[in-house]
Task: inverse folding
């Protein structure tokens, strides 16, 4: 409470009130002045002084300097005629340790009595606010908005805004609106308010108080220590209790004084996830196996909800229980920030993802516990579709390989060579055609007998010809039956595969169906009828067996008929016998010629080879069609990858929106978010199948990787057409060596590693397994990979402090390590100020920028008396508290003389 009379200080009465108030009420002496400024309503100025000042001496000084003695007041025309010089009085108040406040807004005798109708008046008000006023006292809360949005930005300075009761009768004390000032009930708090205007709040309850009261399970209230009763450890170490402020807490102390120990103990009691990185509660220090001092002490943490947790300092955290605090050890922060690469699954990546996941609303988390699990859940159907498309793509690639092999110059030349060989074989065969042996003219009587035998032979040969045709027909039927049986087998296997896929599909959707309370079988049903296939296969099998029997019988009969012809031939006379042998030889020769000429269906025959050569001219059209199908299929794969990117953008959108709305983030940090498709492992996936020692565009290990990298650098991986063009261009370079101009043709097969088929390389290129969706975070146009370890650490701290929406207490051990002071001041200070508005923040620090400039709500000074039985003492208090203030100067500034000495040596900015 401050008591301010007009132009007087009732020293005796204020003294008595201070005695009555004792430790319950702090009474601050003050005085209100009328100044020369303003119009009809003069601007009033108030000076407020420390509760422990020499008030009588102060009042005597003010009376003299400002001519406020009774005689001077009388000489000047009485109290109503008294006024003082604004600037002189303000300087005098400050000179004697006071704080200057003035009425503002619509309050009577406000500084706004100085109008804005002339430029010099606006300049005068600006100078007064900048140089002579510490606090504005408004008359109503609505006055604040104009100052916050217009005045303060205009003058480049923010002043605290408070409201007094303005009561003139203590028995009728009332307030228009409660005024809250965060800090100890002392004049030092008033001084701190001048440097940190955010300490003041108007309204029924400050926002942070309401937040704390409504979430008592999220704020640590106290940590206490006891030694185990039967402990044999003689050292004291941890005793007593430490109160913990719900706002920003700074743990300070000299090196090795127990600062980190307190942070880790809070982390242990809060079941943090980073206990493996403890630097004090580990087996190298306090938990040494041979002398485990941790077993001798237990700690209890009391939450503001009154819930308490007690553990031995040798206990471990429970991995099966959720963390109740978030603790970032110094070593852990260093470790993840020094990772060489930002790859999916890295510690750095996991930490960023955990913060981003905190922005996903509960209804959008779909029961998952991490961002990665949510991404996997949301993209599983798309990944399955990609797998199916890659199988289809693989079949197309096999067709293309087969067509390319047929269309190759080697294959064409081989067929031409075969045709030429068959033609030579046919010419040679024609050259050995049996010379004709005409039917002889013999004695009529004898000739009749010979003709009768000849007729028998001819009849038998006619039957033999029929049998030969029948045998050929049987062979054809059996070949057709074999094809039908094989086709039936493939169909049956495909049906089996489809049925298995159906069962897998039912299993895949069962969990989701259980959530909806429906049966998977009600959504998907299939009917597989194998009867037609089995019937066709059975018919073909029966036909093949029948024809085998028929063919065997006919072959046996043909052999018997041939034997009969031989017997009959022996009965002929020499001329007729010679003629008959000629006929048999001609028959054999004709059969052999027919085999050489063959048909379009008979492999290795001249007609078959000629047909193959003819079909070569049709292959370019077939290849072009197959390649078009492949291009269309690779675009389908890419379309699914794009859908996954859309999932990423959807899931990351909330954190992007938060950053765009957050004023601190917008002003201080240039954070950019974008989901895109990136290449991952391209050289391993593609060049891993290539022998880089062979002639080709990618000859040489380093040269080959560089050539592929250069291709990828100019490729467009964000569009389907760009990806298809890259795949086709990359594939083409395995057919032509682009190291020379113009490129020369090379063999694809010769460039492949052992046991690698051409279709496998095509699958690697067109399957797009090297294209991965990635949500990229940039800071000032630099990707995470381009940031230095210090910058990565800063970015991670920004995420923890500014962007993380988790509301459990956040404990950070020495966040300023590896950061320069300018970065600490410019970035971390703003983030810490913002974080304290949402959650309890506890930092271990050596940096005055974090403890003092951030205006910590509580300082906990740690000290260990190694000579006094290793007793660790924690002294807690506000920054304005004289004891903790002195300790802060000692630890953070290296004593006050050192601080003053440095201050004297720095030049003030012009």
Result:
């Amino acid at each position: 409470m401050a008591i301010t009379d007009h132009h007087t200080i009732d020293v005796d009465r204020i003294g008595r009130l201070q005695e009555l108030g004792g430790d319950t009420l702090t009474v601050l002496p003050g005085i209100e002045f009328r100044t020369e400024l303003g119009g009809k309503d003069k601007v009033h100025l108030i000076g407020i002084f420390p509760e422990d000042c020499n008030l009588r001496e102060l009042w005597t000084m003010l009376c003299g300097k400002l001519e406020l003695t009774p005689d001077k007041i009388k000489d000047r025309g009485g109290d109503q005629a008294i006024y003082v010089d604004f600037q002189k009085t303000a300087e005098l108040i400050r000179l004697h340790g006071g704080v200057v406040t003035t009425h503002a807004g619509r309050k009577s005798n406000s500084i706004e009595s100085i109008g804005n109708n002339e430029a010099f008046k606006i300049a005068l008000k600006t100078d007064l606010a900048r140089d002579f006023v510490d606090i504005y006292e408004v008359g109503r809360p609505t006055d604040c908005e104009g100052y916050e949005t217009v005045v303060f930005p205009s003058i480049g300075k923010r002043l605290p805004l408070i409201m007094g009761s303005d009561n003139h009768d203590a028995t009728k004390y009332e307030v228009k609106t409660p005024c809250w000032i965060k800090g100890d009930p002392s004049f030092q708090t008033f001084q701190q308010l001048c440097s940190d205007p955010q300490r003041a709040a108007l309204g029924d309850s400050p926002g942070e108080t309401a937040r704390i009261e409504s979430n008592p399970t999220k704020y640590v209230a106290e940590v206490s220590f006891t030694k185990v009763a039967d402990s044999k450890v003689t050292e004291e170490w941890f005793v007593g209790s430490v109160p913990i402020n719900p706002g920003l807490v700074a743990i300070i102390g000299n090196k090795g004084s127990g600062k980190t120990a307190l942070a880790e103990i809070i982390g242990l009691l809060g079941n943090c996830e980073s206990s493996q990185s403890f630097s004090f509660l580990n087996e190298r220090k306090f938990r040494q196996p041979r002398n485990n001092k941790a077993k001798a002490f237990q700690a209890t943490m009391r939450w503001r909800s009154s819930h308490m947790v007690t553990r031995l300092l040798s206990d471990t955290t429970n991995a099966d229980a959720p963390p109740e605090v978030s603790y970032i050890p110094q070593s852990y922060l260093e470790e993840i920030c020094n990772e060489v690469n930002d790859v999916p699954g890295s510690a750095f990546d996991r930490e960023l993802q955990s913060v981003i996941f905190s922005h996903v609303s509960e209804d959008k988390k779909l029961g998952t516990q991490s961002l990665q699990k949510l991404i996997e859940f949301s993209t599983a159907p798309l990944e399955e579709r990609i797998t199916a498309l890659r199988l289809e793509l693989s079949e197309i690639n096999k067709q293309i390989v087969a067509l390319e092999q047929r269309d190759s110059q080697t294959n064409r030349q081989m067929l031409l060579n075969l045709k030429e060989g068959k033609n030579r074989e046919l010419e040679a065969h024609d050259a050995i055609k049996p010379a004709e042996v005409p039917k002889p003219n013999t004695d009529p009587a004898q000739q009749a007998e010979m003709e009768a035998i000849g007729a028998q032979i001819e009849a038998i040969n006619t039957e033999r010809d029929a049998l030969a045709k029948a045998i050929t027909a049987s062979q054809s039927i059996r070949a057709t039956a074999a094809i039908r049986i094989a086709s039936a087998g493939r169909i049956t296997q495909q049906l089996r595969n489809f049925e298995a896929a159906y069962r897998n599909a039912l299993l895949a959707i069962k969990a989701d169906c259980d959530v909806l309370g429906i049966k998977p079988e009600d959504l998907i049903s299939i009917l597989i009828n194998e009867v037609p296939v089995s019937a066709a296969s059975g018919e073909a099998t029966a036909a093949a067996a029948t024809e085998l029997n028929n063919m065997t019988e006919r072959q046996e009969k043909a052999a018997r008929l041939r034997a009969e012809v031989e017997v009959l031939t022996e009965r002929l006379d020499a001329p007729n016998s010679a003629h008959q042998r000629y006929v048999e030889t001609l028959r054999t020769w004709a059969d052999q010629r027919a085999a050489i000429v063959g048909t379009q269906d008979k492999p290795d025959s001249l007609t078959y080879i000629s047909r193959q050569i003819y079909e070569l001219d049709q292959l370019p059209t077939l290849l072009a069609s197959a390649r078009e199908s492949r291009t269309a299929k690779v675009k389908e794969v890419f379309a699914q990858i794009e859908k996954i990117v859309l999932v990423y953008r959807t899931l990351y959108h909330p954190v992007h929106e938060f950053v765009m709305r957050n004023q601190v983030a917008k002003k201080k940090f240039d954070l950019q978010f974008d989901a895109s498709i990136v290449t991952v492992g391209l050289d391993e996936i593609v060049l891993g199948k290539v022998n880089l020692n062979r002639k080709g565009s990618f000859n040489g290990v380093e040269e080959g990787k560089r050539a592929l990298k250069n291709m990828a650098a100019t490729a467009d991986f964000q569009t389907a057409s760009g990806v298809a063009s890259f795949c086709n261009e990359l594939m083409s370079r395995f057919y032509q060596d682009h190291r020379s101009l113009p490129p020369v043709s090379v063999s694809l097969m010769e460039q492949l590693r052992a046991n690698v088929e051409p279709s496998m390389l095509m699958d690697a290129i067109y399957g797009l397994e090297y294209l991965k969706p990635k949500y990229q975070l940039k800071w000032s146009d630099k990707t995470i990979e381009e940031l230095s370890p210090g910058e990565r650490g800063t970015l991670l701290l920004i995420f923890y402090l500014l962007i993380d929406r988790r509301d459990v207490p956040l404990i950070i051990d020495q966040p300023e390590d590896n950061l320069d002071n300018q970065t600490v001041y410019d970035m971390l200070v703003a983030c810490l100020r913002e974080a304290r508005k949402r959650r309890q923040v506890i930092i271990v620090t050596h940096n005055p920028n974090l403890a003092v400039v951030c205006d910590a709500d509580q300082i906990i000074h740690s000290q260990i008396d190694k000579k006094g039985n290793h007793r660790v003492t924690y002294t807690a208090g506000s920054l304005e508290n004289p004891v903790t203030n002195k300790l802060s100067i000692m630890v953070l500034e290296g004593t006050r003389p050192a601080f003053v000495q440095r201050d004297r040596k720095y030049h003030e900015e012009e």
Q: What stands out?
A: The longest strand covers residues 28-38. The mean pLDDT is 88. The chain has three domains: 2-204, 214-357+785-905, 410-619. The radius of gyration is 49 Å.
